[in-house]
Amino acid sequence: MRVVMFGYQTWGHRTLQALLDSEHDVVLVVTHPRSEHAYEKIWSDSVADLAEENGVPVVIRNRPDDEELFERLKEADPDIIVANNWRTWIPPRIFGLPRHGTLNVHDSLLPKYAGFSPLIWALINGEPEVGVTAHMMNDELDAGDIVRQEAVPVGPADTATDLFHKTVGLIAPVTIGALDLIASGRTEFTRQDRSGASFFHKRSIEDSRIDWSWPAEDLERLVRAQSEPYPSAFTFHKGARLEVLAAVVSTGRYGGTPGRIFYREGDGVVIVAGADARTGRNRGLAITRVRTEDGRELPATRYFTSMGGYLTNRP
Fold first, then answer.
1. Contact (Cβ atoms closer than 8 angstroms) between residue 108 and residue 141
2. Strand 268-271 relative to strand 283-291: parallel, antiparallel, unpaired?
3. Helix axes 9-21 and 160-168, enclosed angle (nearest 10)
4. What is the pLDDT of residues 163-187, one digit of tens each?
5. Strand locations in the chain, DSSP E?
6. Which InterPro entries does the annotation name (predicted)?
7. Angle of the 9-21 helix axis to the 171-183 helix axis, nearest 10
8. Which residues contact 154 (CB under 8 A, 6 or more apart)?
């Protein structure tokens, strides 16, 4: 099939590479300009560079809503558009232009985790598995019929970085497998159960701020979700910002006020956590490694030279 690809960052790059390696013909690529947004500088392999290296024409747009682009798309005469990590709305006159419509590739197990940063949100929420879905685009965000979907388990120590590497490898088989089904003449696919749909917004620095009223289990997953190269989870100690690089749920139960620097346990320092911590039934968050405002990275047992005092949400 003649394919136009809409995509950005490493997800789009892997999709384009899969298309170039397939029997399908990539006739045009549309991608976003480079961004300085903290999360868009991560996994930022260039779709434009890959297309140009392979002689594929490239159009760069923030939004695909101008007449010049529409004319380019009509001239390209695609059988299908394939989109992955396109960051703005694609209007119906574009996604409905090709003979077979538009296939969107999304890194979640739709209908759950539509929208942005699905791996991070899924890890924070304790999902047992994550994956990649190829679905037909319609008027609603990430809501079209599912053509192909594959899942991988979330391990007990997995970080968001681990999940990225697990799922990015699914892009090629999910995308090309879906295209092969469409090329074979299939037109009926699996409808999404919209009663199970959930939508998530882009991550920002505010979303990495530790709230000590959360249960320790949730905070431990937040720390893993904010693994390098993502901005780290952070708190404040004596008015200074402190990044939490690694932590585990305590083995003991600790009562008191959330945020209290309480006790050394193993290789960590336990912080009281949970809105109902006063009951004494909660586990604490045992911080094992931190980074200070001046960039020093050190074990928590070295940073916290004495117990007592509090970690806070604000300076």
1. no
2. antiparallel
3. 20
4. 999 999 999 999 999 999 999 999 9
5. 2-7, 25-31, 58-60, 80-84, 102-106, 114-115, 129-136, 146-153, 199-200, 233-237, 240-253, 261-265, 268-271, 283-291, 297-299, 311-312
6. Formyl_trans_C, Formyl_transf_N, Formyl_transf_N_sf, Formyl_transferase-like_C_sf
7. 50
8. 122, 123, 127, 128, 129, 130, 163
Q: What is the pLDDT of residues 304-315, one digit of tens each?
A: 999 999 999 999
Taking 70 as the pLDDT cut, the residues of the chain under it are none
- CB-facing half-sphere around the CA of 286: CA atoms within 13 A: 15
Cα–Cα distance, 41 to 47 (Å, whole number): 13
CA–centroid distance for 183 within its chain: 29
Residue 143, classed as helix, strand or coil, is coil
Dihedral (Cα; 28, 76, 175, 111), 10-degree rounding? 100
Beta bridge partners of 151: 131
Write down the pLDDT at residue 295: 97
Q: What share of the chain is helix, strand, coil (3-state, %, to 5)?
A: 30, 30, 45
- Amino acid type, 315: P
Structure tokens of 158?
């997995």
Please tell me the number of Cα atoms within 13 Å of 263 on its side-chain side: 15
- Taking the complete model, does pTM exceed 0.70, yes or no? yes
* DSSP, residue by residue, 191-259: PP-GGG--EEPPP-GGGGB--TTS-HHHHHHHHHHT-TTSPPEEEEETTEEEEEEEEEEEEEE--SSTT
Minimal CA–CA distance to 165: which of 7, 20, 10, 49? 10
Residue 77 tokens read as: 């005469």
pLDDT value, residue 142: 96
Place of tokens 């305590």: 250
